[in-house]
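Help! Submission page says 'invalid entity' but I think these are all valid:
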Amino acid sequence: MEFQDYYELTQLYTEYALAIDSGNWDDWPEFFIDECIYRLQPRENYERGFPLATLAFESKAMLKDRVYGVRETLFHDPYYQRHVVSAPAVRKWQKDRIESEANYAVFRTKLSEPSIVYNVGRYIDVVVRTSEGLKFASRECIYDTEMIPNSIIYPI
Amino acid sequence: MSDEQHIFPEELTWERTDSSRIPFMVYTDEELHKKELERLFYRDHWNYVGLEAEIPNAGDFKRTVVGERSVIMVRDDDGSINVIENVCAHRGMRFCRARHGNRPDFICPYHQWSYSRKGDLQGVPFRRGVKRDGKVQGGMPKDFKPADHNLTKLKVATRGGVVFASFDHDVESLEDYIGPKILAYFDRIFDGRELTILGYNRQRIPGNWKLMQENIKDPYHPGLLHTWFVTFGLWRADNKSEMKIDDHGRHAAMISTRGAAGKAGEVTDVSSFKDGMTLHDPRLVDIVPEDWWGGPTAVMTTIFPNVILQQQVNSVSTRHIQPRGNGEFDFVWTHFGFADDSEEMTRRRLRQANLFGPAGFVSADDGEVIEFSQEGFDSNPSHRTLVELGGREVGDTDHMVTETLIRGMYRYWRKVMEA
């Protein structure tokens, strides 16, 4: 793998985290190709082979529907979120396709409240090269957090 | 000052003789919570503990909860199911730490007391002492009988693949407990078909456990709080619907048939209705009617005290309520399908699961409103809620513009708690 590819990959990871923590939800689907997979799944289901995910989307269009839900239809307490993501480990590298993974931790801060550890887990990704640079073909967020602190509204 | 208002009353007082105004204190008082655990969970009641499909083989077990007591549901050699309390008879340790697995027996690691799948005490290390220099040292007293020190065994009932347990061995039969009216809706889902487990979602909600029962006994909110329901016609006030309640008032079913989507009449004047909202990917509500529905597109059944049975179009689940003190509960969703589902139907159930659970399009906000209700209660327990929609009485209705099911639950609560 070329250094340039790895540099672009780390940029993708970092830009993704910054985007979903910014509150500009429309940026989120743009990290994905049209025919993509996004899954937020408890580690328990993942390891036991149960297919259920907390959220499971199968297209960029579904991600846009989620954005609409976050902004317009889901009543929730406002909060900030902050992702801290490790450097990605590359599991497989081809010219235009990378399989990689990284650890992540998300902190949640509600108004007038201290920050809490919100969701921790591992990204398992398939990244592909497009004319607009690297995009996710698949991003699975497999989380350790046994009990979700009430709800998850924003993208992980 | 004799008319001094107490924000933190010592006694629970109801504003009316009926159950239409519920004191905040029923959600905030620790002593009442303990009394609820004794009277509504541990005595006279059946509690949901799991599905048979979770433990298909002999020795399979699942650690689960009745009220706030940890129990183990285990498949015995003859295929029957035992439920035993996860507290060692010796030093009271909650010994089983795995949440699922398969074991020939259960051993408390502290002093290696071992128990069979029935919860019978089998082995006590050094029970007869240890021999040294020809002398027996220590050991249990001569009159120690292992049979007196089994794990606490619960009474177990299964129906249609669903497992219930009770610490009270004199509890009525599960069928009498649920009653014929609600049993019909129970059997509608669990008619003996083999179930397939699709997986779990777990959330911790900072509110009183009863609020989740009330949420699913409240047909008023879905068409107001949940934009998806009203906009896509999945659940809203102009749908054909029925509210059914058992004779005690403790269990209920909310039954609804999907009606018009889009704008129609005053039900879509509400601010949560989104005229012109369309999905970028309509597969999220790719609904295919199933024969077993028998008409209604959604039936939400509440079995008191600790489970909700969900059928919302093609998504089916059990939702297990696990209290943690008066101000918090864990909420565990088990999504399932049926063994004869096509691959396509399984995919559909999983896709529609996006609507439910801790991040779901129509469920994430239920946890939120429960949290904020509890905040209101905690700040002034002298006040009360108002559940007078549709009158102050309790009974079945052929519409959803009513809070009768919540009144029914509190009529029952008062009967049991004030006895």
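Support: the input was valid. A stray whitespace character was the problem, and the output above is from the cleaned input. Chain B has a mean pLDDT of 95.
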